[in-house]
Amino acid sequence: MDDLFDKNLEDALRREAPLADRIRPEDFDCFFGQDELVGENSPLRRAIQNDNLTSLIFWGPSGSGKTTLARIIAKKTKAYFVKFSAVVTGINDVRKEIEKARERLKFKKQRTILFIDEIHRFNKAQQDAFLPYVENGTIILIGATTENPSFSVISPLLSRSAVYILKPLSPDALRSIILNALKDGTRGFGETGITIEEKALERLVNFADGDARVGLNGLEFIVNHLKSENKKTIKADEVSAILKEHALRYDKKGEEHYNVISAFIKSMRDSDPDAALYWLARMIESGEDPRFIARRMVIFASEDISNADPRAIQVATAVAHAVEYVGLPEAQINLAHGAVYLATAPK
C-alpha cells in the first residue's frame, strides 16, 4: 500500500514539477550539448552505456547537464542508484545508505551508485566519510559541483575519481532544448500548439546564457502568460517584455567570477576593445565590485603593457582613483575609458 501511495505521489510531483525537471531527458537521444563529453563513441558515454562506471566528479555551471547525466546513468545502470543533495542531506543519512550498500553487495551482489549533488557543500570531514567505501568498492560515487573540485573536493577523493568538465551550453544546444520542450506533447507544451518566432527564440537563447534551466524556466513563464491571453505565437517583443531583466549567470565567489575576469583580461591582451567592453559591462551589470576590476587593470598595465606605453599605468591608476572617488554608476564610464585605452595600447 505504501508503494502505491509513493508511486501516486511521484506521479503527482512529476506532473506538477517545473518544465526544466519534467523535460529532463532519460537517454542520450534528447541530451543536447556537451558533445565532447558524451558524443558518440566518447569514453564516458561508452562507460555509461556499458554500465562500467568508476567514481566520477561532474564539474560545471548550473544548467549544464550534470544532474541530467546522473539521471541517464540511473536509467541505464543495473546498479542500485541513490541520489542525495548535500544541501538538504546530512552525512548520517549518507552513512545509513552506505551500510545498506554493503548489505546489498554482500547478499545480492549488486553495486550501489551514490550520486551527491552539490558535493562541495560537504566539508572535509564529511567528504572523508566516503573514502574507505570508494576505495574498497562498496559504492561508486558520482559527485556534481559548480565549484572547482581542486579546491572544493578533498584530494584523496579527487585522486580516486575521474573529473569531467561540463561547459555552459552552446546557443545551438539551447535552441534544440527549447524547441524540443515546445514540441513535446507529453512532458512539454506540444499540446498547446504554441510556436516561437526565430527572433524570439534568439532572445530566449541569449537570456538563458548557457543555462538550460534558465531557458526552460523562461519558456515556461512565457507560455503560461500567452495561454492566459489565448495567444499561440511567442514574439520577440513579448520575450523582452515578459523577461524584463537579463539575469546574467555570475557568482562573485564561484568559478564563473574567475572565468569572466579572465575573459576581460584576455580581450585586452588581444587588443580587442569591443570584447573588453562586453566583459566589463557583464561584470558591472552582474554586480562585481568595481574596485576589483580597477585593481586588475592596474596589474594588467604593468604586466602586459609595461614600458611599451608608460602612460598605461598612469591611466589605470587614475581609473582606480576615479572608481574610489566617484563610485557607481558614473565610475562605469571611467572603467570603460581605461579598458579601451589598455586594450588598444601596444603590448
Keywords:
five-stranded parallel sheet, Helicase, Ruva Protein, domain 3, alpha/beta, 347 residues, Zinc Finger, Delta Prime, domain 3, two-stranded parallel ribbon
Radius of gyration: 24 Å
CATH class of the largest domain: Alpha Beta
CATH-defined topology of the largest domain:
Rossmann fold
Mean pLDDT: 87
Q: What's the shape?
A: globular
The total strand number stands at 7
Helix content: 55-70%
Total helical segments: 19
Following the backbone from N to C, one meets helices and strands in this order, namely HHHHEHEHEHHEHHEHEHHEHHHHHH
Distance between the termini: 74 Å
Q: Domain count, please report it.
A: 3
Identify the CATH architecture of the largest domain: 3-Layer(aba) Sandwich
Low-confidence parts: none
The assigned structural class equals: alpha/beta
Q: What is the H level of CATH, i.e. the homologous superfamily of the largest domain?
A: P-loop containing nucleotide triphosphate hydrolases
Main beta sheet: 5 strands, parallel
- Assess the beta-strand content as a share of residues: 5-15%
Order of adjacent strands in the largest pleated sheet: 2-3-4-1-5
Can you characterise this structure?
With 347 residues, the chain is α/β, with parallel strands linked by helices. It has three domains: 34-165, 3-Layer(aba) Sandwich (Rossmann fold), CATH 3.40.50.300; 171-242, Helicase, Ruva Protein, domain 3 (Orthogonal Bundle); 255-344, Zinc Finger, Delta Prime, domain 3. Helix content is 57%, strand content 9%. It is built from 19 helices and seven strands. The strands form two sheets. A five-stranded parallel β-sheet has the order 2-3-4-1-5, sandwiched between helices. It has a two-stranded parallel ribbon with strand order 6-7.
